[in-house]
Amino acid sequence: MEIRQGAFSVKTGQGAWLLRGALREGDEGFTLLEVTIVLVISGILAAIALPSFLNQANKAKQVEAKMYLGTLNRAQQGYMLERARFAESVNELGIALYNSPNYSYSIHLDSAGNQYAVHDAKALSANLRPYVGMAAVAQDGTGDARVETILCESKTAQPGQAEQPVLNASVSCAASTEPVGQ
């Protein structure tokens, strides 16, 4: 015996049970309720996942600033040990560092140029945190001088610069920032 309907042709007993659901009349698709439930569940999952995804994108952009400022800190440390002063520019350090759509970078020295160098990563978006790094000559407990570095992150996302670190006996982050590295 052979069953024929539309494009289907199957002999009875040879897999007809596979097509039984396809050959039933009245089963022509999903109901409105089923489609609505799927859309609601998809919307809930998207609402949960989207903020997390956007946050990860901002964190990836912030890694750029941390990496560049860490490089500037280490380069200034070496420059100070070799020349007894800090470099006034990125070019003087011999580093290829470029402003990006996310951050602009700058170096500021103390008036004599031999006490500290501040490196700013100015956030250009309200969704990103600004960063600031400092390489500074500090005295240890025995009176010997050493070059300390610190990297600070603003506690909030905001466009602009982070507050400059504090230099006393050692280098520390300002009240509105928190340390994230050297």
Radius of gyration: 31 Å
The helix/strand order is EEHHHEEEEEEE
Describe the largest sheet.
Answer: 5 strands, antiparallel
Tell me the span between the first and last alpha carbons.
82 Å
The tally of structural domains comes to 1
Structural class: alpha+beta
Mean pLDDT: 85
Tell me what portion of residues adopts beta-strand conformation.
Answer: 25-35%
List low-pLDDT spans.
none
Assign an overall shape: elongated
The total of helices stands at: 3
Going across the major beta sheet, what is the strand order?
3-4-5-6-9
Tally the beta strands: 9
Report helical residue fraction: 25-40%
Structure report:
With 182 residues, this protein is α+β, with helices and mostly antiparallel strands. The protein has one domain (48-181). Helix content is 35%, strand content 28%. It is built from three helices and nine strands; from the N terminus they run ββαααβββββββ. The protein has helices at 16-23, 32-83, 90-93; strands at 2-5, 8-11, 103-109, 116-123, 131-139, 145-154, 166-167, 171-172, 177-181. The strands form three sheets. It has a five-stranded antiparallel beta sheet, covered by helices on one side. The protein has a two-stranded antiparallel sheet with strand order 1-2. The chain has a two-stranded antiparallel ribbon with strand order 7-8. The longest helix has 52 residues, at 32-83. The chain is elongated, with a radius of gyration of 31 Å. It starts with a strand and ends with a strand. The mean pLDDT is 85.
